Amino acid sequence: MIDNLMTALGAEFVQLSLTPILIGILAAVACALPGNFLLLRRQALIGDAISHVVLPGIVAAFLVTGTITAVPMMLGAGAAAIVAVVMIEIVKRLGRVEPGAAMGLVFTTLFAAGVLFLEITDTSSVHIDVQHALLGNLESLIWFDAEGWQSLVDPAALATLPPQLPRLALVLVGIGLFIVLFWKELKISTFDAAFAGAIGIRTGVLGFALVVATAIAAVAAFDAVGSIIVIAMFVCPPASARLMTNQLGRQVGWSVVFATISAILGYVFAGYGPGWFGSPYAVSAAGMIATISGIIMLLACLFGPQRKRVGQQAEA
Amino acid sequence: MSFLDYFISALLLQAGYNSALVAVGAGLLGLSAGSAGAFIFLRKRALVSDAISHATLPGVGLAFMIMVAFGSDGRWLPGLIIGSAISSAIGLILVEWITRKTRLTEDAAIGAVLSVFFGFGIVLLTIIQTMSSGRQAGLENFLLGSTAGMLISEATTIAVAGALAAAFVFLLRRPMTLVAFDPEYAATTGVNVRNIDLAMMGLALIVTVIGLKIVGLILIVALLIIPPVTARFWTNQVGPMIGISALVGGISGYIGAVLSAAEASIPTGPIIVLVAFGFFMISALFSPLRGALASALRHQRFQRRVHRRQGLLALSRREPIYDGLTLRILRRSGMIRRDGVATLRGRTASEKASRDEARWAMARRILPDDSAIERYDGLTPIERMMTSDQIAEIDRMLAEKQGASA
């Protein structure tokens, strides 16, 4: 048993599993952080919409630049997210329809356009396809040059880390800073937008900044893990956390814990779980991470100490 | 045969048996999606159907695995449809349960169910891919739809279920309208709002599962949302709206399927959605009721009337006019000469405007509660909104006031 554990956590682990797990955690936490505020502002589905339009953005970037390097892809995806938010606003005003319908109309149309362009243009030479966009490829983000734990202090080996890892770390730091620096403003404008406006917080700008932070998290995470995890992590960890506590600070803390647990357990179950049942194949890590976050949320719905509505809403 | 020739012959159902089958099937699907979607849209729950459609995936996977375990090849469409219906029903019940029993709002419940069911479905699909019979299962086609090699039995299944959904809409149209517009009132008249809500979502569920094969589960929600949003531009009445919505859905499905039959590289689901979006764009721009063009024209007409009126009032007070647009409007309608002096016509019109203004001012004093005062836009001549008796009374008061000040 101990031997098994040692091999499991040995050189092979560092090479094959350490980086995907770390990337999974970083992506999950980067999405869960802004998700807390989206949830409380009843904008949980913005994350859903944004992650659908990342695909057309990436396809458009590929059609313009002809390459699949990271920077144009991320710019394209970011631009698509902003286009989508603007389009939703236009449809909402022009058609005087509810936000949900406007959102559904815009993101399905953009996603359809992305798929169509992908199919009718010659993208066979490069590896972008719909499956990849949905599922990501967490399992493939291995650390070739790692020879064991000692590689963590070896600059030569560190230089060959999958580029998604430092990128996501950077994004996570950025989003963390945004939330820490604007904590008070975010908190007040989330719970009482009118009061926030009255004391001079520019709620419109702040709301847009939150959407931009969401888009950045979605795009960076998407590149590594695909859109399913992105949507799941925007909603499930913050929603589970909401059922645990009545304090925003603790809620954010819980959501980080839940996101981390989902990423670790999801990856381990996906990679090693089938082996326990005698199957030599792994299952989708992205799908498993989403599944675990759902199980955590189900448990929170059943047993979370603050799961019930209180006050006026409880009677409604 | 060129693309266009083929498109036209396919449009007329003459491009072969299979593409005709697919086109008719997609048209029927669009028809039922459009009519069911209209109610969901009016109830403002469009995105619940997104949760429903994504929640079908685990059902498809499990149904396939169960059918394989019983020795079939697992691709039998009715079996897959039943599986997807069961799992999306569970998803729907979970959305309801989370919203009702916990403090979480509906959008959070939708996002959670959508992503978790979809993620679990993907896990199942990766398991199926490792099964010996699963390699050619083609279950990923349910993500984005595929009509290549559709069987007659599959088309019949879709047609029957589509007709069933349409009949369902027809039977429940009254309680669903009531619940969509005023759930409290509906409850007081004895309608069970919760059951009607469930029925509405049940319709979305039927449309989703029959649409899996053609449009795919990611985009089927578009067929439930875009047609009603489009229809809303053309009418303010429920009956016509449902009709238009069904029509938009049906035509989008039909044209989209034909386009994708004409050019094999065009995937069916996305092109159907984009055709529907085309209808939305045309409506949003050109609908006479709420379209952008009509609104812009209305705005411009109003602006011109305001400028004309203010210009005439300025003339009557002998004030100079500096505003370019006002000058242009007055000059073009022959109220003033090139040098800005009022013509005979202009003097008559300005006197009339100033009398009208004075009458309105008096009307506000002596008839403050009259409904015409509330509806007055600052431009309409008083004769059009008040009776001649009222105006005579106003004129009498005006004369009195003038007599008093003289």
Automatic annotation (TrEMBL), chain B:
Subcellular location: Cell membrane
Keyword line: Cell membrane, Membrane, Transmembrane, Transmembrane helix, Transport
Top-level taxon of the source organism: Bacteria
PANTHER family: ABC-TRANSPORTER METAL-BINDING PROTEIN, METAL TRANSPORT SYSTEM MEMBRANE PROTEIN CT_069-RELATED
Protein name: Metal ABC transporter permease
Coarse class of the protein's main subcellular location: membrane
Xref: InterPro entries: ABC_BtuC-like, ABC_TroCD
GO cellular component, one term: ATP-binding cassette (ABC) transporter complex
